Amino acid sequence: MPILLKYRTIIVCLLAGMLYALGFPLFNGSSLFIAPIIGFALFNWALDQETSLKKQFVLSLAYSLGFYLLGFYWIPHTLQEFGGLFFPLNHLLGLVFSFVIIPQVYCYVVLKSKIKHPLFLAVGYVVLERFVPQQFPAHLGHSFLSLAPTVKLVFAPWAGAAFYSFFTALLSLALVEHFKTKQKPKLYYAFALVVIVFHLPFLHPSSAKELSTLKIRMVQPNIGNFLKIDSERGSVNSIKSVYDSYYFLSTDKLPEKTDLVIWPETAFPTLFLSEGMKNNKNFPPPSVIDSIIEKTGAELFIGGYDSSLKPGEQNYKSDYNSAFLFSSDRYMKEVYHKMRLIPFGEGLPFGPFNQYLSGIITNISYFAEGDTYTGFKTRDNHSFVSVICYEVLFPDFVADMLNHQKDEAQFLINLTNDSWYGDTAEPHQHLFLSKWRALEFNLPIIRSTNTGISTVIYPDGSESPRLSVGEKTYLDHDFTFAKREKTLFQTFGLLSFLMVAVVLGLVELALKRKTFFQEIMKTDKA
Q1: Transmembrane ranges (predicted)?
Q2: Which residue segment(s) compose the domain that 157 sits in?
Q3: Pair 246, 175 in one domain
Q4: Cα(79)–Cα(382) distance, rounded to whole angstroms?
């Protein structure tokens, strides 16, 4: 028992991190939105028990470790699949990664040592969430997604997930303040009550909108990593196996009409040369694509590899992770090159040293970064954009993508390949976090994956029928969408949330000044 008392703050932070993780889908895809509020409150309570900055850093490490152990337990599996690292090295490296999964907490410890005011701390934490680099951003407010579509998250298109992070942080800090001082922070509780009232369903009547419909087929081939890599290395048998899977799933039992057939990220195993192919009707696509388009009469949107290599050039960073749109007339209409690459998977974060390291570390792709926010149009002139894999997790990037379009995009296609993660929580977490972009930008998202979960996400957080992890099949869906306009969050980004915080701060200041003058008046009367 004395040991438990001695290390109680570390134990509390470890449990607090696990509560944070419960806000995201775990083993069965379910989550608990209230858990991060309690977890962040316990974390702040523990920090208040220590005066040493060094000890507070240790507590933040325990908090991050708890979050990893329950929420990101799948990282060692990925290190084994993707990097070829086996037990115990993959688990040891996973523990190292656990300390950088939520790096904003270390900056927050420093901030909390300088600032004590709950409102400023809550604002500071959300700003840190936004600007401290993270590969898999899982923020405090994201857990509220579990309430949708039953509860309409009305502040998402106004101020994004940042508003819900602010709400979570402020309520957690208010609870700690209440426990510590035995005085109710009435303003913060009133703010929480107002936020809850705004989410009551009768305040948001539905309105009829003119809808457009695309008849789509999402192909989920469930191609294993060995076959995928072997085909990309040029094995004739493996390439044929991949082609056969896509051909069958794209053409089997076709409905009367299909507008768009969609394949996932890096579906096509061999290189395209889009510079020569794009809008060139005399440059035919590969035979399997040609045959699928001929049989379906549909346009084809696929993930694959594009090369910018010219004769005599070296092949370092000459290839792109790309998305291609082929017309029903069987030519390449447009291509998007992935712009945000995954560190240690699609490149290394060591700048000019990468080219030399590429000769030593050979199991990394070393893709080139795209530099164009490509827009696409269907044959019926519906504008859309595409992002690849984890790009969808970054709201600022998606906002930039949308704001660079000449014509407002009506929907987004997210191509991804989660095969490296197996049947773990990662595909559920990836989908869960992707849904925020639909809410923030009032933007339907078609999510096409290799191994699942493939689905259509609608702007209220609802879904079409889905293809689950491990299924090898296709989904025909009448995809309906309304003409959309920019949301406030798309236009102003983090400024929208900051405006809410400023208003709340001004109200608090006004109330304190009123109390101050009331005290003066009481003194004068005495």
Answers
A1: 7-24, 56-75, 87-111, 118-136, 156-175, 187-204, 488-511
A2: 2-204
A3: no
A4: 40
